[in-house]
Specification:
The complex is a heterodimer of chains A (about 350) and B (about 325). With about 350 residues, chain A is mainly alpha-helical. Chain A has 14 helices and two strands. Chain A starts with 7 loop residues before the first helix and ends with a helix. The chains are: A mainly alpha (about 350), B mainly alpha (about 325).
């Protein structure tokens, strides 16, 4: 069971995540005091009201599914030294193409064909956006943060145009229903929107974990992320890794369409899944870019998001929205802080 | 610039010209009019101030992705102060202070704690989105809009002090960077911090001052947003901060060119508003994308010809 024993690196990452989590809870509690609520009461109510209600649990799972896929997208890119904040645009592209393909399929298409086809379409769409971002970074040096933001706006604009021109029905912002075979079944938790795309997310977590830590591909992209020059000297094509990683990253975000289109709305809807891409950044950072970490972080952030709604009689929901930003800031600081404390100890021993 | 790049640029500009030529004459006249020009100047103010602020911070060696947050917090505090004291001029001051405070937090995390500067910037932007809503809820009991203030900045550009601040900054910042001791230390902090250390100066201090000035400018840009509207609307920065940074990068970290690029973006936006009113064949969801597509195109084509400050992002 050697691979289960955490290395020093892993221990430090876990420490950083815990420090960030504790700091966020502390700051959150201060904010609750500011609005005149009792933090203990609020946190307990969040836990109690969620755990006892199947539809709340379902809501948490539903949010966590989309978050996990977007979080994996950001985490994968970060591992290769790329900051892909274009999850919003990649998700929108995936949602759009998935829905269009889903409605184009004949009604009699069996699920065994329809589901993989739609999933592939979603992944390819998100991946295409990712490829462009990676290409521009690798060949022209255009920083992916800026190009991601540009693509978010461009994809949103085109999606709106396509929606209004061809997809929306009868003055709504919803399109036609996708073929029956492409529907993903609900999990059935109290009528919530939690659905079988959770399996897609879990498969992605497992798959990414395997490739990341057990294959040479994983070692290659992590080497590029740690030190591109050293990787280049070792014979790795940095440009190729960057383009392939960005493609996969975009594809993961696009796959989140499974949760929103195939598992929930079963049609294209303007703005479907909005906000998940950005929150995925928080999940990736809190999870320290480790696939399992991202999964746990997604569940925590989803719990926070759903929990904010369930305690809105005690604190305004804007408080939990703000906490999402606090978490990212806390994580950004916790990493170096934990590392510097470890470094200091080493010096003392010497 | 190489022949190939010139050819590509020519293709882009040619396509633009073609789009323009195809429009009927009255549409062209409507777009290239004084009214649109004035509107473009007004629209440009937050972009220009944010870009100048970002350029200062980046030239000192700190990645400034938190422009969006500075705009948002600047806008929020400006309207709160104006509503509390009835004076938009005090509001401008409040906005600038809010921008400086945001910059201080950014620099604390980046320089003191050593956090990744890109992440800190994005984190602050996320924080600003939720945080401004939270403060709205706390102060006014409503999380999406502030109350409307009767006291606001006049819509006439000439009477708007932030407009003059933008004009002054566009002239003063490049000169300050190039010819003052402060500017020299700032640029040294960005390009050769070891040179600063060898004369006994502190790069961190230079970056701190640069960041605070940059934050004040960006905060003023944010104040313009809320004080000309008369209220704060949630998420009202609308991506201007990111666009401003893109302009800085596009301009090779040169403040004057960045300001010009921002005016170009503002003109495209103002022209688009006019086009929508006059009626055009370009779909209304696609027309506003022009600045984004152009930015992307130029960033990709012009490539990394201009280098960023050598110490950008490093401590």
């Amino acid at each position: 069971m050697g691979f289960l024993r955490p290395s020093d690196d892993a221990k430090r990452e876990l420490q950083a995540a815990l420090v960030a989590l504790l700091a966020s809870i502390a700051i959150g509690s201060v904010l609750m005091l500011l609005v005149g609520a009792s933090p203990g009461r609020v946190w307990w109510a969040m836990i109690e009201r969620t755990a006892g209600d199947p539809s709340q649990i379902g809501l948490v799972l539903y949010k966590a599914t989309g978050l996990a896929l977007c979080g994996l997208s950001v985490a994968l890119a970060l591992d290769a030294g790329l900051f892909n904040i274009g999850g919003e645009g990649q998700l929108t592209a995936g949602v759009l193409v998935c829905a269009v393909v889903g409605t184009a399929l004949p009604e009699s298409t069996p699920a065994i064909v329809a589901i993989p086809v739609c999933l592939l379409a979603a992944a390819l769409a998100g991946g295409a956006v990712g490829t462009l971002i990676g290409l521009f970074r690798a060949t022209r040096g255009a920083h992916e943060v800026i190009t991601s933001i540009m693509f978010n706006a461009i994809v949103a604009g085109f999606a709106a145009w396509i929606g209004y021109e061809w997809l929306y029905r009868n003055g709504t912002t919803t399109g036609a229903l996708i073929a029956d075979g492409a529907w993903l079944p609900q999990i059935g938790l109290g009528g919530s929107s939690a659905n079988a795309s959770l399996l897609v997310a879990l498969a992605a977590v497992a798959g990414l974990w395997w490739v990341r830590s057990r294959t040479t591909w994983g070692m290659a992209w992590r080497a590029v992320g740690r030190d591109p020059e050293a990787a280049r000297t070792a014979g790795i094509s940095v440009a190729r890794v960057q383009i392939l990683v960005m493609t996969a990253s975009g594809a993961l975000a696009g796959l989140a369409a499974a949760n929103f289109v195939m598992g929930h709305k079963h049609a294209y809807e303007g703005g479907l899944g909005a906000g998940t891409g950005f929150l995925g950044i928080s999940a990736a950072l809190l999870g320290r870019t480790h696939p399992i970490g991202v999964l746990i972080a997604s569940l925590l952030l989803a719990f926070l998001s759903a929990g904010g709604l369930v305690v809105r009689d005690l604190v305004p929901k804007e408080l939990t929205e703000m906490l999402q930003g606090v978490v990212v800031l806390a994580v950004a600081a916790a990493g170096p802080w934990v590392a510097s404390r470890a470094g200091a100890q080493k010096v003392r021993i010497a | 610039m190489t022949t190939r790049k010139l050819v590509w640029l020519g293709v882009i500009l040619g396509a633009l010209a073609l789009v323009l030529v195809v429009q009927p004459w009255d549409v062209l006249a409507a777009v290239f009019s004084l009214g649109v020009l004035a509107q473009a100047l007004k629209t440009a103010i937050p972009y220009v101030l944010a870009a100048l602020g970002g350029a200062i911070t980046e030239r000192s060696g700190v990645v400034d992705l938190a422009l969006e947050a500075k705009l948002l917090f600047g806008a929020l505090v400006a309207i709160i102060v104006t509503l509390a004291f009835g004076s938009p001029y005090l509001g401008i001051l409040g906005g600038m202070l809010a921008g400086m405070a945001t910059a201080w937090v950014q620099l604390f995390f980046a320089l003191r704690l050593g956090a990744d500067q890109v992440i800190v910037g994005v984190a602050l932007n996320l924080l600003a989105l939720g945080g401004t809503r939270f403060v709205l809820q706390l102060v006014y009991g409503e999380g999406s809009n502030s109350p409307v203030s009767q006291a606001k900045l006049p819509s006439n550009l000439v009477a708007n002090p932030i407009f003059w601040l933008a004009v002054l900054a566009t002239i003063a910042v490049p000169i300050a960077l190039a010819r003052t001791r402060w500017g020299l230390r700032l640029r040294a902090a960005g390009d050769r911090p070891d040179a600063l250390v060898s004369v006994g100066a502190s790069p961190e201090r230079a970056r701190m001052w640069a960041g605070l000035v940059g934050g004040a400018l960006a905060g003023a840009g944010g104040a313009h947003l809320s004080l000309t509207l008369g209220s704060f609307v949630a998420d009202m920065a609308g991506g201007r901060g990111y666009m401003a940074l893109a302009m800085v990068i596009l301009a090779g970290w040169r403040p004057a060119w960045a300001a010009l690029a921002c005016f170009g973006v503002a003109f495209a936006i103002a022209a688009n508003v006019q086009l929508q009113l006059v009626g055009t064949a370009i779909p209304r969801q696609l027309a506003p994308l022009l600045p984004y597509v152009l930015t992307l195109g130029i960033l990709v084509i012009a490539g990394s010809k201009r280098r960023p400050p050598r110490s950008l992002g490093k401590l």
